[in-house]
UniProtKB/TrEMBL annotation:
<dbReference type="InterPro" id="IPR000653">
    <property type="entry name" value="DegT/StrS_aminotransferase"/>
</dbReference>
<dbReference type="GO" id="GO:0000271">
    <property type="term" value="P:polysaccharide biosynthetic process"/>
</dbReference>
<dbReference type="Pfam" id="PF01041">
    <property type="entry name" value="DegT_DnrJ_EryC1"/>
</dbReference>
<dbReference type="InterPro" id="IPR015422">
    <property type="entry name" value="PyrdxlP-dep_Trfase_small"/>
</dbReference>
<protein>
    <recommendedName>
        <fullName>DegT/DnrJ/EryC1/StrS aminotransferase</fullName>
    </recommendedName>
</protein>
<dbReference type="GO" id="GO:0008483">
    <property type="term" value="F:transaminase activity"/>
</dbReference>
<dbReference type="InterPro" id="IPR015424">
    <property type="entry name" value="PyrdxlP-dep_Trfase"/>
</dbReference>
<dbReference type="InterPro" id="IPR015421">
    <property type="entry name" value="PyrdxlP-dep_Trfase_major"/>
</dbReference>
<dbReference type="GO" id="GO:0030170">
    <property type="term" value="F:pyridoxal phosphate binding"/>
</dbReference>
């Protein structure tokens, strides 16, 4: 069942509000709108990039009926924490289904992620945690936010390493969903994050190239004061 069907099956409709993340794809907010409800954006946990439980609690209003938990980059959302908020506030906690990869593929991605964790310097590596499947290996580039992250990405690509910005524009900054809301961790993540490859098919020499390219640039960027 898609997100729209899940929301409609839960009875979400016109006049309701549903809490969703702004960091990620627009489809979840679009699904809420298609039911006639209004998406309400809450900030993310900077370690997991999933909805932050206290931030969700803070934006619950009289029309709020549900929250959609979205797992991000293979990192599970804090469903237990969200359900505690749901029980206290009388909200449904709905979970957006995540595509499942074969066990062997996930284990190889975890092995590649562990290799990068041990060897990368100059970028902040992701927090692993139980259950992380590393659909994307997302690092933080230090410095002055988006300009330095984008310069770092160009330099890494020039060294023959694929990389990409996982979330270019938060949903609350997109036409049709623009909101004047304060989401500092969402904004910071959109400005600093960069995804590096950890595909199961990558050879050891390709992993070494990723490390070499990133570490050659690590000392060039310094945090802003």
């Amino acid at each position: 069942m898609g997100t729209v069907g899940m929301l409609r099956a839960a009875g979400v409709g016109l006049g309701d509000e549903v809490i969703v993340p702004a960091f990620g794809n627009v489809e979840v907010a679009e699904a809420v709108s298609l039911t006639g409800a209004m998406p309400v954006f809450a900030d993310i946990d900077p370690a997991t990039y999933c909805l932050d439980v206290p931030a969700v609690d803070a934006v619950v209003g009289p029309r709020t009926v549900a929250v959609v938990a979205v797992h991000r980059f293979g990192q599970p959302a804090d469903l237990a924490g969200l359900r505690r908020v749901g029980q206290r506030q009388g909200l449904l906690v709905l979970e957006q289904s995540e595509s499942k990869a074969p066990y062997d593929e996930v284990e190889q991605r975890r092995a590649h992620a562990a290799y990068l964790d041990r060897r990368l310097s100059g970028v902040r590596t992701p927090e692993g945690g139980i259950g992380h499947t590393y659909q994307q290996y997302v690092v933080r580039v230090p410095g002055n936010g988006r300009p330095d992250r984008d310069a770092f990405a160009r330099a890494v690509r020039a060294r023959g390493v694929e990389c990409w910005v996982p979330v270019k524009t938060p949903v609350h900054r997109m036409p049709g969903f623009r909101r004047d809301v304060y989401l500092p961790e969402t904004e910071r993540a959109a400005d600093e994050t960069l995804a590096l490859p950890v595909d199961a098919a990558l050879a050891k020499r390709e992993m070494h190239r990723i490390v070499s390219a990133c570490n050659a640039l690590g000392g060039l960027l310094q945090p802003a004061f």
